[in-house]
Design a protein that fits this description.
Elements lengths: L1 H9 L20 H12 L2 H15 L3 H25 L6 H8 L2 H33 L3 H10 L15 H15 L2 H26 L23 H12 L19 H30 L10 H8 L3 H35 L18 H17 L2 H27 L4 E2 L4 E2 L22 H23 L6 H22 L17 H14 L4 H25 L1 H28 L2
Antiparallel strand pairs: 1-2
Helix pairs in contact: 2-9, 2-11, 2-13, 3-10, 3-13, 4-10, 4-11, 4-15, 4-18, 5-6, 5-15, 6-8, 6-13, 6-14, 6-15, 6-19, 8-13, 8-14, 9-11, 9-13, 12-13, 13-14, 15-18, 15-19, 16-17, 16-18
Length: 587
């Protein structure tokens, strides 16, 4: 009984009335503001820092296709986010979506990882910004810092080579702008993003004047394709790396509670920003790889170095400024989203209530910004950027996967039709399945959970088989892999055998359950390719999170309080009724 009660508590759903838009935050953001917030968050360290290393070491000119593939994978997740943005226009991003879709415990898992994602992402961008400026100044900053403080480590370590004071101060400065209010911070972001887009235009149109199409065609001296110097597998490996250049779009959903018309603004801003960013990535990487041979691309200052090699000093300086602008907007986007995710969890009672306090003048969750902004600055001060980037991926992919799963689950739940005064057929089986009569006895929509559980488990096991090479081993391993692939297909067909609901929304993901299932499959395959140290990081971070949730959150959750109030009212009503009945029947 105790286990049953605990299960009900940890998997309870958040009750969010349809059309509920009340919020302590200020609704002042237009679709244009939110679009530029997404563009600024994504076009930053991703294009200026990531591109050079992927071209040089992983994909070569085929990075153009890598960005297209990564953009497609991100678009599948973005479609799911856009539907939830139209369905639940509240702050919290995937956290809120999971809360209303699959329950409180999963919501906490996602929210806790998103908080870390934004902290690590902001810290990594700040370290990149500092390193880029340092390289432009001839390493003056790093050399002078090391001369005064010494090295943080002598051998390989999680820590950086020196305490990055510039990165620390940069995060403090950006947090100050974010604390002034959402309109101030988004105006600052919009200004820098427009400048950054201007730099992108310069890179593309001026860089194309140096284009040498022979760098893309034919074979090199070793007989390798010039466009695919690392093979098609290198292009796919590049796509896996480039995927994380798109992680900023999930920050758009955190602005839902401050958008003037969130049901329309979030989907439009999501697609607009994804289109702008994908085109920018593809055109800039094409321009770069047509200017100079891929093996001459600088791994960290790719564009400025390429223009310098071509004798275009003015363009080199413009790109350097654009890189700083781009990384600044990426940092603003991360610091904007971070306190709002913390606020959403604290406002629901899953984190300490003091973190939900909102400043009366700026209407910003100021305490959440101070606490987690300071932690982010400390991380940027001490930790190595490579370590930070390695830790970024799993939380992002986990969030994307849960949102995709939630889209399927919510589409196949019964919806109440006000006009007809009854529930629709959502979640009901279209026909009886032989040897599965027990399914007909389940409540509508409940069997979807069984189908999703089997599909996710089979996807994960199949991904492990492919990533580990077990499918090429013994016949037993091949049979195990084949069984899991068949289970994925059967569970998908089982979900298709249910009626979807007829809930009216401003935007819906097309071809459900195909698109969310495809998104879930791609994200799962990427997750199983992550390094073991990333999973260890997840285990440690989640250990801290579960201690907070089971020690505090489960007892202070708003849903817990509301359940207690409903139980109290029900008990009081029953006592009154019992008393009346007893009085009426007593002699």
């Amino acid at each position: 009984m105790r286990f049953s009660a605990l299960r009900e508590r940890v998997f309870r759903l958040k009750h969010l009335p349809a059309g509920e838009l009340s919020t302590p935050l200020r609704r002042c953001l237009s679709t244009f503001d939110i679009t530029l917030l997404g563009v600024g968050h994504m076009i930053g360290a991703g294009i200026y820092v990531l591109t050079g290393s992927v071209v040089r070491n992983t994909a070569g000119p085929s990075i153009v296709l890598s960005f297209l593939l990564a953009g497609f994978a991100s678009l599948l997740s973005a479609l799911c986010y856009a539907e939830f943005g139209a369905r639940f226009p509240k702050a919290g991003s995937a956290y809120t979506y999971a809360y209303v879709g699959v329950g409180e415990l999963w919501a906490f898992v996602i929210g806790w990882n998103i908080v870390l994602e934004h902290m690590l992402g902001a810290a990594a961008v700040a370290r990149s910004w500092s390193g880029y400026l340092d390289s432009l100044l001839g390493n003056v900053i790093s050399n002078s810092t090391i001369a005064r403080t010494g090295h943080l480590h002598e051998a390989s370590s999680f820590f950086g080579d020196y305490p990055d004071l510039l990165a620390f101060l940069l995060i403090v400065l950006v947090a100050f702008f974010v604390a002034l209010g959402s309109k101030v911070s988004t105006n600052f972001n919009s200004f820098l993003t427009i400048l950054n887009i201007g730099v992108v235009v310069i890179v593309v149109f001026y860089g194309i004047t140096f284009a040498d199409f022979s760098l893309w065609s034919g074979v090199d001296n070793q007989g390798n394709s010039k466009f695919f110097p690392y093979g098609v597998s290198g292009m796919f490996a590049g796509a896996a790396s480039c995927f994380f250049a798109y992680i900023g779009f999930d920050g758009l959903a955190t602005a839902g509670e401050e958008a003037k018309e969130p049901a329309k603004s979030i989907p439009i801003a999501t697609f607009s920003s994804m289109t702008i960013v994908t085109l920018s990535y593809v055109l800039m990487s094409a321009s770069l790889t047509l200017m100079i041979p891929y093996n001459m691309v600088h791994p960290t200052a790719a564009f400025s170095d390429a223009f310098t090699m071509r004798g275009a000093e003015f363009a080199s300086y413009a790109v350097s400024l654009g890189a700083l602008f781009g990384m600044t907007t990426s940092l603003v986007g991360g610091m904007f989203a971070l306190p709002r995710c913390v606020f959403a969890m604290a406002d629901d009672g899953l984190l300490f209530s003091s973190l939900a306090s909102v400043n009366s003048k700026t209407q910003v969750p100021i305490q959440a910004l101070l606490v987690f902004g300071f932690l982010t600055a400390i991380i940027a001060l001490l930790f190595d950027i490579t370590t930070l980037v390695e830790f970024l991926s799993i939380g992002t992919l986990l969030a994307y996967s849960i949102v995709s799963a939630c889209v399927i689950i919510l589409r196949y739940q019964p919806a109440y039709n006000v006009d007809e005064g009854q529930f629709d057929n959502g979640g009901k089986l279209r026909f009886s399945i032989p040897f599965c009569k027990f399914l007909d006895q389940l409540q509508p929509g409940h069997s979807i959970y069984y189908g999703m559980s089997v599909m996710i488990t089979s996807m994960f096991l199949s991904g492990l088989g492919f990533s580990s090479g077990y499918f090429s081993g013994s016949y037993l391993c091949q049979a195990f892999l084949l069984v899991n692939v068949i289970l994925v297909i059967l569970s998908f067909l089982f979900i298709c055998a249910h009626y979807p609901n007829n809930t009216p929304l401003d935007f819906k993901v097309p071809l459900v359950p195909l698109i969310p299932a495809l998104s879930l499959l791609i994200n799962t395959l990427m997750m199983v390719h992550l390094a073991w140290i990333t999973w260890i990081r997840l285990a440690v971070w989640m250990g801290v999170g579960f201690a907070i949730y089971f020690g505090y959150g489960i007892h202070h959750s708003k849903e817990e309080i509301q359940d207690s109030e409903r139980f109290s009212k029900s008990s009081t009503y029953e006592s009154v009724v019992s008393g009346v009945v007893a009085g009426a029947t007593s002699p």
